[in-house]
Amino acid sequence: MSELAETMALSRRTLLKASVLAGGGLMLSATIPGIGKAATGGKPATLNAFVTIAPDGTITIVGKNPEIGQGIKTMLPMLVAEELDADWSKVAIVQGDSDAKKYGPQLAGGSFATPMNWIPMRQVGAAGRQMLLEAAAKDMGTAVSSLKTEKGHVIEPETGRSMSYGQLASLAATMPVPDPNTIKLKDAKDFAIIGRKIGGIDSPKIVHGQPIFGLDTKLPGMVYAAYERSPVFGAKFVSADLAAAKAQPGIIDAFAIQGSGGPEQLVDGVAVISKNWWLANKARSKLEVQWDNGEWASHSTKGYDEQAKAFMASGKPAESLNKKGDSAAAFASAAKVVDAQYHYPFLAHVPMEPMNCTAQWHSKTGTMELWAPSQTPNGGQTTVAKMLGVPEDKVIVHITRSGGGFGRRLINDFMHQAAAIAKKMPDTPVQLVWSREDDIRSDHYRPAGWHRLRAALDANGKLTGIEDHFVTFDLGSNAFNPATMPKDHFPYAFVPNASYGQTMMKTAVPMGALRAPTSNALSFVFQSFLDEVAHEAGTDLPTLLLALIDGAKAEPAQQGFFGKQPGFDPDRMRNVITKAVAMSNWSHASLPQGHALGFGYYYSHLGHFAEVAEVSVSKSGQASVHNVWVAGDVGSTIINPFGALNQVNGAVIDGIGQALSLAVELDKGAVVNSNFHNYPVPRMPVVPAIHVEFVPSDNAPTGLGEPALPPVIPAVTNAVFAATGKRVRTLPMDRAFLATA
Amino acid sequence: MVKLTINGETRALDVPDEMPLLWALRDELGMVGTKFGCGVGLCGACTVHVDGVATRSCSAPVGTLAGKKISTIEHLGETPLGKALQKAWLDVDVMQCGYCQAGQLMTASALLAKNPNPSQAEVDSAMQGNICRCACYGRIREAIQVAAKEGATTHV
Question: Which residue of A211, A650, A684 is in closest CB contact with B32?
Fold first, then answer.
């Protein structure tokens, strides 16, 4: 069975209900059990879709997942509309509130939404189309087999008779509901909407400056809140001069809030309230808060670096992660040993829309109402209810559009703060807004990490052994711990003798997932190190990678977040590597003086990507990226080429920024960076020409928010080595190290 | 009391002179199209026009703006150039999250008003103060060129 068929098999039990809309028209609601078991702790979740067709022909589809710029609010309805044969210009999309019971998990993260919804959303559309056909057949007094559908109409080609979906909707609602699980879906060759370049559904509002983001929420009588927290992570509130803040112009109130549930929920702080956020934020400077910093005020990135280097020098990881063969023997008999230490820093997410949340405590009903730009609104609903000690149905979360996410909004600390503040101001809507400084200094950072890698090569240059000593942080047993590595990280399975181990350090720095979590760091480490190995073996990285997987078979499908998902497939890896090598004219490229190519490959979030970067380095040590060639396999279909290419281009530039310039520094227990001058994300002049080609395969399509990012980082650092002979083993690149004048 | 001319209308505001225009627009006048991104003039999300010049409203105290003509994203579609840019933005499908795009459009329209046919280097130079964290830069470049071509044929 192909992977595509396996994914289809999961959604065998889709249930469909049809009803007549008040005022005429058709409403379809689908319940799709058996999806997302992992997300609900073993219980089959329901994944509901709601589609209505009004008598005027307008088709309304509920967009249930949060839109953070990944294009989901446009893409999911495209799947329904395709099988429905809708007229896309008549499709309206409304954002659903947070309600996991109704919609199933509503999550923007992990590039999951595409594979989870690929089949069920189409089944809903196909079932709707079937009912419209039945209705038309009845009305026209003809057979369904003599009818076809096109752009929101049922047509009888023989007679030229035509009825619009709007005309048919009420009658269609009384037709028998087909079993969506046996309904035939379209062949890819007949797609009219899937595969078309379709612009973002909310973009027309955005170019006119209409309110749509969380921060645009306006409620009658709304006030604004700024929240002062300790610069030092893990500190406790002692005292503040609340009177001084309250004496400032325009200040309505100032009060301390006691934290609970750790940094993912509510940290100690002081709220300042005003009718204007700027006034509230300004008054923070008068608070003179005293904090008890505890044991964490001595922590610094420099300290962590020294500690990690000492661990790596010891040569003995505190614990083994994975072991096979006899790596000691491989190293003892090696003709050549490559031994290198790699390091990547803490990173912040810095989405353009600062963290914010609007909250209102309705005292009469005991209900907390929230307007939140969150990637995990269901989780926020649950934990805010717990914090407030109210049942979950007494917390209403309206999902707003998010001005970027990148993983930052998987953590709902801002929701808890807004709720805690609003609880103290009953029946007054409060909008909490973080400054950019709050954002950079109160993030849940991409963990820093250190690796000492060793490789044993035999006399023929063959890789016979590999060892990794990973130094990371002890983050306890979070559901998702971003400071970990897969214990069989490539090339573990393809080297006869291997040993991976790790040592952990204590910290109070909060950490979380950043776009392509773990992969964004491990790609740099392993693909750079393998480039070193290739160089020592007298070959190049693509050749080494292809040799490693030579003759290997695909791993079986395994249970993943949204059900069965394909295992690692060396053929798909080979295809994208071969493609990127050809696209970039890898071995025969004639390049301008001082330019060189570098290669990187990575498999993450079910997407295979191989990328080649063309880089030059100035005398002052500034690296410039001129071209990037990208070959990606994300399954059978590119659903919306507009969104897909935008995601790939953005991921590539994001990765280049991480390679060239980004690091969060900690000193005296607090983050030193404060704004975009010392956290310099890429700007327009940095952007190279990016050439993208997709390599289709027989797999359900997967999301594109993440998998294009990881390989560009080693492609750039490996190109720097090719251009300068200097091996970049620490990110971001050090200009002084690369300078020649 | 400060009097400002915003999108052709006179608005009276009872706020301190040093309040940045951004917060007068957003929290006093409810005009939320202009976005808060960094608060210190580093990201360009809050860009408006002051007498036709692209200006960071987060760093422009209202007390310095009396008698000047302020124009915001809500007004962009009122000019042929603004309309052409909005159309190009949609045709090229520039945006991902879209949060920075009001600022990008305001900077782009100030550029094209002064230089109707910019080179890529001129576009990069004019636009480098505007951060797009989703990095839609390639499409911003493209959309500006599309709007510029449109302008060349319709004499906007």
Answer: A211
Query: Number of structural domains, chain A?
Result: 4
Whether B70 and B89 map to the same domain: the answer is no
d(CA B35, CA B47): 8
Confirm or reject contact between A202 and chain B (CB < 8 A): yes
pLDDT, tens digit, 9 for 90 and up, residues A330-374: 999 999 999 999 999 999 999 999 999 999 999 999 999 999 999
ipTM passes above 0.85:
yes
Residue A440 is assigned to a structural domain of this protein: no
Pair (B101, B112) in one structural domain: yes
Structural domain span for residue B95: 76-154
Looking at the complex, report in whole angstroms how far the Cα of residue B149 sits from the nearest Cα belonging to chain A.
19
Closest by Cβ to A203, choosing from B34, B45, B98: B98
Min Cα–Cα distance to chain B from A334, Å: 45
Instruction: Say if residue B67 is in the same domain as residue B105.
Output: no
Q: What's the CATH number where A406 sits?
A: 3.30.365.10
Q: Would an 8 Å CB–CB cutoff place A703 in contact with chain B?
A: no
Give A625's contacts (C-beta < 8 A, 6+ positions apart): A613, A614, A615, A656, A660, A686, A688, A716, A719
pTM value > 0.90? yes
Residues B92 and B68 in one domain: no
B45, B89, B123 member nearest A352 (Cβ): B45
Position of tokens 């990765």? A655
Quick: pLDDT tens for A472-490.
999 987 667 899 999 999 9
The boundaries of the domain holding residue A289 are 224-299
Please report how the helices B80-91 and B101-114 are oriented relative to each other, as an axis angle in degrees rounded to 10: 130
B40 to chain A, minimum CA–CA distance in Å?
Answer: 8
Q: pLDDT for A695-737, tens place per residue? A: 999 998 998 999 999 999 999 999 999 999 999 999 999 999 9
Residue found under tokens 């023997």: A329
Tokens found for residue A145: 């087999």
More confidently predicted of A33 and A475: A475
Q: Is residue A178 domain-shared with residue A263, that is, in the same domain?
A: no
Residues A468 and A549 placed together within one structural domain of the fold:
yes
- Find chain A residues with C-beta within 8 A of B46's C-beta: none
Pairing of the two strands A148-150 and A153-156: antiparallel
A705 touches chain B (CB under 8 A): no
